[in-house]
Design goal:
The complex is a heterodimer of chains A (about 190) and B (about 220). Chain A has about 190 residues and is mainly α. Chain A has 3 domains: about 55 residues, no CATH class; about 50 residues, no CATH class; about 45 residues. Chain A is built from 9 helices and no strands. Chain B has 2 domains: about 90 residues, Orthogonal Bundle (Rna Polymerase Sigma Factor, Chain: A); about 80 residues, Winged helix-like DNA-binding domain superfamily/Winged helix DNA-binding domain (Arc Repressor Mutant, subunit A), CATH 1.10.10.10. Chain B is built from 11 helices and no strands. Chain B is globular. Classes of the chains: A mainly alpha (about 190), B mainly alpha (about 220).
């Protein structure tokens, strides 16, 4: 490589290695020859070299010691989970989200409450399936539900008030008819 | 010729780069072993993997965002993502360092897009004249900065670089990744990496000079 054969565009590629000190002696010689004749490339080389010199004088950054602890704390364990160990890799991978400790505990608590609160149920006998008995039981049940519904409806305050008002109006109506038209009713004509 | 001499002074550590790549080989093997143990469910291996790589991820994030808190949050997010997608890492397709840097970059891009509005406000504030800054500049002009002080100045200067140039300079000059690795991380040809690096370095030098920092 002769100095004449080197263009400024070649310098851009060679310069980084030249500043790093990894350029072959032949290329280095060619580059230095070009730099001695080209002010622009020389300025670029000087600046790059100065920056590298400055960068080499700067202190290396150290990570705060607590950062490693924080990273290790935030990442879950790399050990295979109990689910994977019990059910194998493939099945364990499927079951892992379902068998999370929180979910399992929640399901356990729900099951326990259900068993504690369940009503005492008598064992069924063939005589319980007699159609008459079944019909009587169903009728009683329906009547009881109906009566309970009616009672609840009548006990509602709003319904009670409406019914009272309707009764009052019904009582007032015959009296009004005997007295003539009401004074509050609009006049049809002045004439 | 004096200018070439200045450049040559910086370019002397030739064998160092080759030695660095040789030195990285056992690290690669160590990473692969750790990942295999992690996937086997070994807790200690995950701890080691986090301990080894936290510094690099944090440094990339901190240099890119210029904020310690944001860098810490991003580092946490990166490792959460690493944990979830560790199975998708293929040792034959590149080193873990490259894979991790690519993952970090993806999160940084997301963060950059999200914080667009905040940056717009910041840039307006930066344009206002600041008395404290000029005082700091005169103090800097006295001598060459090094160590932590230089690191702080660099932080401010990096913010002024475009994200493309910034990430290239960070990966090469601060995290010492090879050109091939940077090309894999950024998904661009090696020539583009070198070109961006030259422009990034030169731009950085100009910014530092503008701040009257002796370089």
């Amino acid at each position: 490589m002769t100095p004449e054969s080197l263009y400024c565009s070649d310098v851009e590629i060679l310069l980084a290695e030249y500043v790093d000190g990894t350029l072959t002696s032949e290329a280095k010689q060619a580059l230095e020859s070009h730099l001695s004749s080209c002010a622009e490339c020389r300025e670029l080389a000087e600046d790059a070299a100065a920056a590298v010199a400055f960068l080499s004088r700067t202190a290396a950054l150290e990570a705060p010691p607590e950062l490693v602890t924080r990273i290790l704390f935030q990442v879950p364990s790399v050990k295979p989970s109990l689910t994977r160990r019990l059910f194998g890799r493939i099945l364990g991978e499927w079951l892992e989200p379902v068998l999370q400790p929180r979910l399992v505990m929640g399901m356990g608590a729900a099951a326990l409450s259900f068993f504690m609160l369940q009503p005492q149920v008598r064992q069924l006998t063939p005589s319980d399936l007699d159609p008459v008995k079944v019909w009587t039981f169903a009728e009683n049940r329906v009547n009881r539900v109906w009566e309970r519904g009616v009672k609840s409806y009548e006990n509602i305050r709003l319904v009670y008030e409406i019914q009272t008002r309707l009764n009052e109006w019904q009582q007032e109506a015959p009296e009004a008819q005997s007295q003539g038209p009401s004074v509050e009713a609009p006049q049809q004509d002045f004439k | 010729m004096a200018a070439i001499a200045t450049v040559a002074q910086v370019t002397t550590p030739g064998p160092a780069a080759a030695w660095a790549s040789e030195r990285r080989r056992p690290v690669l093997d160590q990473d692969i072993q750790l990942i295999e143990r992690c996937l086997g469910g070994e807790e200690a291996a995950w701890e080691d993997l986090v301990k080894i790589h936290t510094r690099r991820v944090y440094a990339i994030c901190c240099r890119f965002t210029s904020s310690d808190q944001e860098a810490q949050d991003l580092t946490q997010d990166v490792f959460l993502r690493v944990f979830r997608s560790l199975k998708s890492f293929r040792a034959g397709e590149g080193s873990f360092t490259v894979w991790l840097a690519r993952l970090t970059r993806n999160l940084l891009i997301d963060h950059y897009r999200r914080s667009k509005l905040e940056r717009a406000t910041d840039s307006i504030e930066e344009q206002l004249p600041m008395i404290e800054d000029t005082r700091a500049m005169s103090a800097r002009a006295d001598g060459m900065l090094a160590g932590r002080e230089a690191s702080e100045v660099l932080q401010g200067a990096l913010r002024k670089l475009s994200p493309e140039l910034r990430e290239t300079v960070i990966l090469r000059d601060l995290e010492e990744l090879e050109y091939r690795e940077i090309a894999q991380v950024l998904n661009v040809p090696e020539g583009t990496v070198k070109s961006r690096l030259n422009r990034g370095r030169a731009e950085l030098a100009r910014i530092l000079r503008k701040q009257k920092v002796a370089i």
